[in-house]
Amino acid sequence: MQTLFSPTFRRVLPTTVFERLQSLWTSLGDWGGAEQILWTEADSSGVFFLLLTASYQALLQGEPVSPRHYAVTITFDHGAVANLLKPRPLPPRPTQEFPHLLQQLTLRLLDILTGDPGDPTSPAALKIQASQEAVLSQVIAQIRQSLDLSDILRATVTEVRRFLWVDRLVIYQFNPPLSNAQASLEGGEIICEATASEEIPSLLGLITENDCFTQVATYEHKYLNGAVVGVNDIESHYSSSYCLVNLLQKYQIRAKLIAPIVVEGRLWGLLIAHQCHYPRQWLDSEKSFLGQIGEHLAVAIFQSQLYAQVQHQKNTFEKRVIERTKDLRSALLAAQAANHLKGEFLNNITHELRTPLTCIIGLSGTLLHWSNRGSSLPVEKQKHYLETIQESGKRLMELINDIIDLSQLESGQSVLHFQEFSLQGLGQKVLHYLEEAALAKNLTLTFDLQIRPEEDSFCADPERLEQILTHLLQNGIKYTPNLGSVTLRVWRENKQAIFQVEDTGVGMSAEQVPFLFEAFKQLNNNQQRTYESTGLGLALTKQLVELHGGRVEVDSTLGKGSIFTLFIPCQKLGALKKASPTAPLNPTVKANSGVVVIERDEEVATLICELLTAADYQVIWLIDSAIALRQIEVLQPGLVLIDKDLDNVHSISRHLKDSHQLAPLKVILLSEQISSSEWQTFSQNGIDDYLLKPLQPDLLLQRLSILQGG
Prior knowledge:
- This protein is α+β, with helices and mostly antiparallel strands.
- The protein has 19 helices and 23 strands.
- It has a six-stranded antiparallel β-sheet with strand order 8-7-6-11-10-9.
- A hairpin with a 4-residue loop joins strand 3 and strand 4.
- The chain is rod-shaped and about 160 Å long.
- The protein starts with 7 loop residues before the first strand and ends with a helix.
């Protein structure tokens, strides 16, 4: 039966003590006389002295672990000597005996070692403690000098193994927990290792998930409390677990010392010293030392984790900075491109506005010039000048309306007014409006209606659809050379109407089509100048189509023409406001033709008063809204036009409708723009209709006539 303790003495001793031991072995070797009994050898790893006699042998081996300390081994066991000196062959044993040599060696050893090093007050124990502190200082310095955890672990296991003079020292890391619960002792991996020689098998990378380890799970609580566990002999300590003993013997583990590595309250891993061939009685000083090393490693691991987190946050921050920089650069490029496009648009729109303004200012100035001279131009010429001024004004109005419409659409302020109408009537109306423009260029303007009579009724916003088709047909006429053709087709598919405008004009290239509907985008500046276009019509068209929930497709060939196809879903009327029926262009003035205008803007009020007076209305202009109610009660008008920007517009309209002093009258709101929610509020307060500024004379007269006839 094997003894509990190893027949080998291992300690870290000061260099002076080791030198005294060398002297002892050398002096005893001199007893051999002619027959040599002392065998010595030295290399880079250390030195050994082997004393041989016929009946026994004594080995002294030393390995420097610091400038002032040696790891010393002393053994008298033949098997231990053979194992320590592998692969050197032992010299033949002398036949001569040396009486009292063993007693002399023993007594002098006791004298040199000065007592039990396990006694903390003995000089040897104090020297060992100093050696431990030196190794600890070296480990702490390594931790402070490096943030690379792998370097710290490698340096630590190397130095600690040499100090403890063990066969193998490993660091075992538990598998990371899947949750915030504590890690289990059942699974992990050996991540770092140091061995005494190549003869000691390596365990690096070994993964332990064997069921044999379930018995040691009871140590987890002790480890978390910082306990260091020493096993002097695995055969006696784990005698109840044949499985575990066989497993440890497989990896040549006879004795082991285990210190926990606890990081932030979690058992991160274990620092384990292995004695491979013989049992070993672990001293309290060795347990304390290994425990302190485990604590310092825990600090190093925690620092490494913090550093990794900081690096991760730094990398994440740098990545976000790079992404944000890219976004800002893209935004800057987009803003520069937008500014460039708007610059081009401003140049283009300036040209478009300047042409009609030049006509208006020039011709009106000519009329004033002749009027100031007391003479007049021929009537025909005056009529021509006035017609040109009116056409130029209409052109200006169209340009301004396009800009306002696009702005309202992009800001979400535009409202659709759905009603049922005739598809045939809509197409004929648009074509009739453009007949003169087509005749001026000798173009064939065709209406291809492909619907049955029962499919003619459709629900959408007819005014907006008229605006869309007018834009497309005007473009077709504008970009089609003389003697060409422009066709409007209309048909139904399922619950949608399809409008198609085809021309035989200049067409576009495939590269130009993707930019066709961009606001302020001009496909070709020279072409725009030639055909007098602002580049807003198609952008406005696309917005209006999408506002209906539809889509627009383009098929164009450069030099051959273009086809624009609109898909407009049929809408549901629901509670939406229906548009009023169209009135004749030359209305008849009704019996109650009194109109009160409450407007602060003198120019707008003057325009309304002159226009309505010319149409035989009796018009009163009120500026002060505070006294308007009393004056209206006296005047008893049939119509009231009121400015939306007045502070008390809601109270005035409500009193006008609720007053018993007034005969039933109609109230029209004048506004530059109005949203659907605003109109709902005004209509609930008694407003009958609204007109948008700048006012269109024909539309104003139509609305007044309709309301008077209602």
